[in-house]
Specification:
326 residues; alpha/beta; Rossmann fold; 2 domains; two-stranded parallel sheet; 10 helices; 15 strands; 18% strand; globular; binds nicotinamide-adenine-dinucleotide
């Protein structure tokens, strides 16, 4: 039986990867500070532990694994990454996790390790327009990310790539672009735009008004977690090291996304654009390299994933209302 290790298995993408690996018949060990928030983990073994602690890394990586997925990081949406007060924690915590995990994998002869980088590592100056903001991988340098989160991802990408060059390790590095979907953070201050906007629409009355950060013209692309997992596993099992984008190239403005959610909720919501933490003006995933190297493309229309996600968040909102009324 093949064995996989998922670090960050209590988080959003990690828990989806665990579920997929179990379906494929893997024996799976998960590690995280916490269990998944919205489901019982299907992992065969789950270590609740802090990967900043080397002894936890040694306990987690104490056997032969065919695949290791490193997703643990101190992260969140714009309200966490772009407000300044979390900068030190984000850099310190995630860098120490990556240094510890990679060195332990090296000492234990782990064959292949996947690292989840982020589109936030791209320089701000190539993302100042709301259109014409495709991000092919080569635009990463000269580096100038707009957040410490992006700088840590850049450092860690380079760390994994150096391990591949100098230590004969097989690494796979992906730059995720705004992954969303069911069972992700939606109300704890770490949620990202799709979940936050689904929650606001779900909580609003018919003909109600919701606050949206910025002028709403800022553009992004969003990839549903199911296609993210598929793209991740295909990269992991390919011969290509990366770094490579994993994202959707269906770009939409933030106000456009609200309108899309409202077309599902049918509430005739009005948008009140207010100042708030924003990030770059425009960003779209360029998937040319992924398609060339892996021979597969993400293709699900955004609205399909948003439909499933809105349905799930709407249920969560109803459940939390029932909880407070009991
Ligand atoms: P998440 O926050 O849901 O998952 C990260 C998990 O790491 C959390 O469960 C957290 O408890 C765990 N963790 C944090 N510190 C830890 C520690 N010291 N020891 C053990 N576990 C620890 O985030 P996610 O959305 O699932 O993202 C997974 C990875 O993908 C992260 O590395 C993130 O930076 C990257 N990424 C995500 C997106 C996205 O849109 N979701 C975009 C770009 C990159």
């Amino acid at each position: 039986m093949k064995r996989a290790l998922v670090l960050g298995a209590g988080g959003f993408i990690g828990s989806h990867i665990v579920r997929r690996l179990k379906k494929e018949g893997f024996w799976v060990r998960g590690v995280d500070l916490k269990y998944p928030c919205y489901e019982d983990t299907p992992a065969d073994d789950f270590i609740v532990g802090d990967l900043r602690d080397l002894s936890i890394c040694r306990e987690a990586i104490n056997m032969k694994f065919d695949e290791v997925y490193q997703l643990a990081a101190d992260m969140g949406g714009a309200g966490y990454i772009f407000v300044g007060v979390n900068d030190y924690d984000v850099m310190q915590n995630s860098a120490v996790i990556n240094l510890n995990v990679l060195e332990t994998c090296r000492l234990r002869n782990v064959k292949r390790i996947f690292f989840s980088s982020s589109a936030c590592m791209y320089p701000e100056n190539v993302q100042i327009n709301t259109d014409d903001c495709n991000l092919p991988e080569h635009l990463a340098y000269p580096a100038a990310p707009d957040s410490e989160y992006g700088w840590e991802k850049l450092f860690s990408e380079r760390l994994y790539l150096a391990a591949a060059r100098n230590k004969k390790m097989q690494v796979r590095v992906a730059r995720y672009h705004n992954i969303f979907g069911e069972r992700g953070s939606w109300n704890n201050g770490k949620e990202k735009a799709p979940a936050a906007l689904c929650r606001k629409v779900a909580m609003a009355d018919v003909n109600g008004v919701i606050d949206v950060w910025g002028d709403g013209m800022q553009t992004r692309s969003f990839l549903h977690v199911d296609e993210c997992v598929e793209a991740t596993l295909r990269l992991m099992r390919s011969d290509f090291t990366g770094p490579v984008n994993i994202g959707s190239d269906e770009m939409i403005s933030i106000n456009g996304l609200v309108k899309m959610i409202d077309s599902i909720a049918k509430k005739n919501i009005k948008i009140n654009n207010i100042p708030g933490p924003l990030g770059v003006k425009g960003r779209n995933s360029d998937n040319t390299l992924y398609e060339q190297k892996i021979g597969w493309r993400v293709s699900e229309p955004l609205i399909n994933g948003i439909e499933r996600t809105y349905k799930w968040i709407n249920e969560q909102v109803k459940l939390s209302k029932e909880d407070t009324s009991n």
